[in-house]
Amino acid sequence: MPIVRRSFDAIRSRLTGIGFLGLSTSWNPPPAQRTVILRLFNFLENRRVLFVPMHFEVPGDVDQSVIQIRNELTEILNQLPENSVAARRVRHLRTASRHFLEDAPPDYRNITYRLRDHYEQPPVSPHHHSEERILAPGYFVALGELRATFGLQLSALAAEFEIDVEEDLASIFPIGLDSP
Question: Looking at the predicted structure, is the pLDDT value of residue 118 above 90?
Fold first, then answer.
């Protein structure tokens, strides 16, 4: 049954007018949800911040990439039906992006000092209003949390809309274990 629904949605999105006995009307239909979500996946498959090993990350570049992702998520939301499941998932992704950028990362300065033997260093500011974030353990925890949120929501979207995902982006998806 869902296959018929998707086919009807695809046909409906391409239908631009109808006429009968000399009367006709036309319109510009919204894109099908699957098309919009596919566009989102195509965009995210090129966002290294979601899957590149963390030791290659540069905080300023990460922040800029997350800002671009947040902007794209807003554009995608404008093309989805307001109360759709897909819109709720995309909204969740946008919220996670905003939290990563605006919230203070967890404070692990005691662990950092013990590991590096730098007890004389001043505490790391938990806010990121400076030009460059400091590479502290809390920063990487926040980045891991962002990746986990994206992995969970994107895997659900990929399953719902039957979208094949590139291996790099799929690496952040949760792993389902089959019971023996």
Answer: no
